[in-house]
């Protein structure tokens, strides 16, 4: 049964501007530990690809927060919601801390998809509750 759906579109130029203003502090407020490693590696190879990575994760976390119905209120913290990739490239959600505990207690699962084009990124999340 569907618990919630969330979608978000984000202008990657806005993320680039935030990163320029606030530096790595901005990235650390958005990304979890595994995502920070990927971000650093992508950014080292190509600054633009690092920004797109950060923008897609920001967007996906906004979508996730909408789908779970909490918005950006506790226990939802952006670094506790990681959007990682399987070896095939398929994105998936990995949760940590109080958010993971809350999510599991609700009996929820999540599916996420991301896309980027030029200056924009988009994400879509479906959160389902296991049937009783």
Overview of the molecule:
This protein is α+β, with helices and mostly antiparallel strands and 132 residues long. It has a single domain, classed as 4'-phosphopantetheinyl transferase domain (Ribosomal Protein L22, Chain A, Alpha-Beta Complex). It contains five helices and five strands. The chain has helices at 12-22, 24-30, 33-45, 47-68, 97-105, and strands at residues 2-11, 81-85, 91-95, 108-117, 120-129. It is globular.
What's this model, at a glance?
With 132 residues, the chain is of the alpha+beta class. Helices cover 47% and strands 30% of the residues. The model has no long low-confidence stretch (mean pLDDT 95).
Query: Helix count?
Result: 5
Helix and strand string, N-terminal first? EHHHHEEHEE
The CATH architecture assignment turns out to be Alpha-Beta Complex
Low-confidence stretches: none
């Amino acid at each position: 049964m569907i618990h919630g759906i969330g979608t978000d579109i984000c202008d990657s130029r806005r993320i680039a501007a935030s990163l320029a203003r606030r530096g790595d502090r901005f990235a650390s407020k958005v990304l979890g530990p595994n995502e920070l490693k990927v971000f650093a590696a992508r950014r080292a190879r190509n600054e633009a690809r690092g920004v797109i990575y950060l923008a897609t994760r920001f967007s996906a976390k906004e979508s996730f927060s909408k789908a779970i119905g909490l918005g950006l209120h506790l226990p939802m913290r952006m670094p506790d919601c990681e959007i990682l990739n399987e070896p095939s490239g398929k994105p998936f959600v990995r949760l940590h801390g109080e958010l993971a505990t809350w999510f599991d207690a609700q009996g929820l699962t999540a599916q996420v998809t991301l896309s980027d084009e030029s200056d924009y990124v988009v994400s879509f999340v479906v959160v389902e509750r296991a049937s009783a």
